Amino acid sequence: MSSRSISIDIEAAPQKASLAQTDGEAIIAAADVHKTYAGAGEPVHALRGVTLSVARGEMVTIMGPSGCGKTTLLNCLSGLETIERGEIFVEGRSIHDMPDTERTDHRARRMGFVFQFYNLLPVLSSVENVELPLLLAGVGQRESRDRAMQALENVGLKDWAGHRPAQLSGGQRQRVTIARALVNDPAIVWGDEPTGDLDSTNANQIMDLLEDLNQRNQQTFVIVTHDENIGRRANRTIHMRDGLIEGETIHRELRS
Amino acid sequence: MEELFGLPTIRLMWIVVAIAGVAAAVIAFIFFKRPILVRMGLRNIPRRRAQTVLVTMGLTLATIIVTIAFSTGDSLAVSIRGLALDGLERIDHFITTEETDAAGEDGGDGIPNQVLVDLQSEFAGDDRIEAIFGSRFDLVPIEHPDAGQVEPQFFLVGVDPVLADELEAVRDKDGDLLSLSDLGANEIVINELAARELDAEPGDQVRLYVLGNAHRFTVAAIGRDAVLTGNLEAGGAGGLLPTDAYQALLGPRLSPPDQWDSILISGAGGVEEPLEFSGALDDEIDAALTRLARENPDLYLSNGLARFSTEPVKADSLEAAELIASVFTSLFLFMGSFSVAAGILLIFLIFAMLAEERKPEMGIARAVGMQRNDLIQMFISEGMIYNLGAAVIGVVLGLLFAIGLIAALNQGFESFGFQFTWTVTVKSLVISACIGIVITFITVVFSSFRASRLNIVAAIRDIPEAQYEESYPLTPWRVFRNVLGVFTTAIGLVLLVTTPITLIIGTPIALILNMMGNRTARRLAPWVLLFGWRVLRWNPQWWVLFLIGGWQLLEYGLQQESLFLYMMGISLLPLGVVMGLNKLRLSGRRIPPRLLYTVGAAFVMFLWFAPNDWHESFFNNNLNGGPELFVLAGTMLTAAGTLLLVFNLDLIVGGIRAAVGGIGRMAPVIRTAAAYPAAARYRTGMTIAMIALITFALVNFSTINSSFSQAFTGNDTAGGFEVLAFNTDVNSIPDIRDGLAAAGADDVLAGIENAGRVEAGPERGTRAVTVLTERWDPVAERHILDRGDIRLVETNMAEVRLEDRDAVVIGGINDEFIDGQEVKLQAISYRYEDERAVWSALRSGEMVAVATVDAIDGAFGFTEQGLDPWSTPDSVTDESTRLPRIVVEVGIGENARRVEVIAILERVSGAFVDLDGENGGLPTLLLPEEIASQVTGPSETTRHYISIKDGADSLDVAQGIERELRIFAVDIKGELERQQSTQSSILALFQGFIGIGLVAGLAALGVIALRAVVERRQQIGVLRAIGFQARLVGFELLLEMGFIALLGLGLGTALALGLAWRLFAEGTFGEISMHIPLGTILPMLIGAFVASLILTYFPARQAARTTIAEALRYE
Asked: What is the ipTM of this complex?
């Protein structure tokens, strides 16, 4: 697989473009995004003017050293975190202009999340964890259960539907998380180090699964990772340093 | 207060001080040996302020309860003592006639003057005695015409004025001396109560009525309420005259010149000084009376029995004050024990939470070499700081509560004209603070042991302990070790408890004594205890303790016929079995805990809901219990109920989901809200138990009290009458209608529908009672007939003559009484068809009688002889509705008559015709008026039972009778309402007191909610990320805590009503039927539920405001 690296001229990046209109293919478009954490000491500038766009159906990984702002960027793009300056459009809508309830609703209907530490609810069984987003979206109980079982089957855990997270291995838990992320057929799946807590075998299996789902369902994946092997499996890798995008590597072109 | 539970309070104080000292010594030891552990413990306190506040709040509960109890006891002791001393002033001993005691205040034969002369001569020169003198008293109606006020129950006292002045025995309300010698002719001293009732002041003219004649007097002064000013009972209006004036007023018939109503003895030295020798002096007076009786039996004996008796009235009154204070303190401690138990559970819960929160750091500390003991010491240090703070706050809050409580008590007792003064002694403060410290210390030590038990790997990784649960197979060695541990601990405890000195002085002194060679078993106690505890300490097998302890308690309970010990034992046994089976592995597999605990808990509940008869017949043993069972029942039922709930929470949750799970987008909220409590069994169970325990106490107490209140103050109580009027020997009205007509009181007369009469005979005339009845001889059994619910057996009549058994009070009833009464009959003779037939027989003047329900219990003394009361084919009991043929002989000699008891009056509606109501215990027999007069001779008092016409006002009729006829009349309806109001306020007071414990349950919810917000921060972040709205996160937590609160409130209510139902159904409270006071219970439950939501609101809001990205990063 051939890769090509592109360096972005930060100064030349379009500032405050009307992102919603200019790039019809971009499902995510961000321009000049700033984020500062005001702590007890000096403020930390986590994002210092990030601009990027992600095409529908693309699998993008974000890489960079610790503290470069990868997770902050993911959180800002997905609307989990507020931004200080700049604009972020998801599916043509400014995610930060939405009120919290609408943004939350949007997440429930159009997004899925996979976190490093699985973050399943320990008190619910696998299938109950998976069907939670559907119930939140107002889908009926029976349909939710059927779709959740289907999602678990897709990740190879149908037989583990009644087990609680504590009764599953790390790999299995992450599969459940993936099933939960995909069950409501989201447009975008956000992953924050989804394989970070797994051994290489399990990590590869999870990535195979994500890649397969991406290719089969044409869903957009934005994944933060430290692992270059995982980065290479995406269409494109965005490299970050000190709160800025310092370049990107295209691993394979997105099929139209 | 000098004594509590039979233990001198001073000794109690030293014991608790010593134990608190031991606690302090433990901390000092830790501090000096390992100061770092104390510092590690202390640094946690300022880290979480809200938690510190909640912890301290929970720990204060025990101290608050004990402080309230002791301070209330002190207040009562001091107030009642003050009342007694003010009331008696210089009077220390009474000499009264036995007959006078029995017949009540209305007199009877007096004490001949010769007795006074004899006693004065016997004790002449005794420097302990200031004076021995006679006094006269009687009930004389009084009127204040200018104010239009009449007081028919006015106690007029007559004493020697010179002697009274010498003794300085009569004072005004400010405590200044009043001189009786200076009283002019027709001048009277009235007491404060009389002045208030009559609206009279010094200088006012009043009229005293004797045998219908009015005598004018001028009020010379208002005297302090005291025995000598006629305050012979609480709320008693009265007055005082010099002896001569008294005798002139009442005349020789009512006040024979050579007789006294009582002889009073005044000790030397003042008001309180004579108390020092009161007991000894009373013995000497008694001995003197016995000696005099030998010398002059005609004067001193009647029918071979002593006619006169002495009573150390002041010492007795002070003893009664002490007793009342002690009873109240015990009552408060008893009711507060639920709150203390809830407080202890809260401490356990808080420490479990603290341990969970610090699990990773404790795991790391253990991994790098910290001993388990070090963790324990760290927790104890931290706990003791909370403890000391809580003790101080608890005492202050307890005192504030006690002040409020005394104020509320005063409101309740306002209508009785008595006020309590809030007081607390240093001794009580020390005891309260130390008991609080000791209870908390013990709980903290146990909690610390539990908290320190952690799996290092699970703790470091902060994952559930269950995954690393070590299995402890039942090896013979483990069992042996635990049995040995249990026995040695028990022996050590017994030795320790039986030797308070060992407990106080403790181990170091025991060691020194041992070294000195004084090796007694008692001094070995701490060592045996330590050894036992040491053996038990690591991985204690509590099931062994439960089994052995339970079995021993059951055996001992059966042996002692103690229902308390038996129930405790039989409740612990199944729990021990379940806990033991839970350890068992069958082919490596364990029995499902749900099955075990569900069966075990259900069995314990069955044992408590099974009637007492079942237990007695199962073990063929008698079992007796008291109110202490209430606390045990609450504890055991709550424990069993909680186990049943927590081991089946998933089923309940499933049920809830099935029922309401499909409510649109609320479905995931309901699901998670129900799932979290089900997943955290320990904390959910503890919180449910706390809330349930207090709810149980509140609901059970309210239900039982309300049922009693309903029974005794309900409309049935009056037996169909609205007004009750009493004749006295000074002022007697034979017929109320005639009296009113003669007085021209047509308006009063117009309100009267029916005026029945009961002529109460002198009780002493009915001492001899013979009961003739059919006795069942199974051998002689010939015919069995079925009629009603009594089995009739025709037998050979076996007469049982039992002479001089017990007294009954005889009442003669007239036709109008029979017409007006609505008294229910509890049991009717099989020879009479129904109630109508019974009353008809009485009306026709047959030789028949009806008896009050006391006749069954007392059964004319049969029980004292070990014979079955009215031993018949089916013995008559409280539950009997049919009576066999019972013939009693009443009266003596020529006056003796045989009458058949044909019915028993129902207790409640018959309460007002119980002629012995005030003293209680003696049965009343109601006979046709004519027969009663043959037995007792002329009646001494007449009671008028009056029912009023529709539209008439009972209070107007009662006041009209008092005004026109000057006899005492009670508005029964008003009186019942007054009683009900007093009862309600006192009931509310006690409920409020018990309700303090709810603070523990609510605080537990707050602790859990706060902990949940921290613990689930990451999960909250995920929920928000996947689409939970912020408000739903907060709502979920509210719902979750509300769910736990509802489970606790529901469980407590169900158990309380279940137990109440059982108690009422098996007749524990006689024929009183159960009444559920929904008006009290529902607001209480709703209030508790709302309070739980309010307390959870703040953590819920905090949860809702969680920043998603920060929460997701949180570890």
From this structure: 0.80
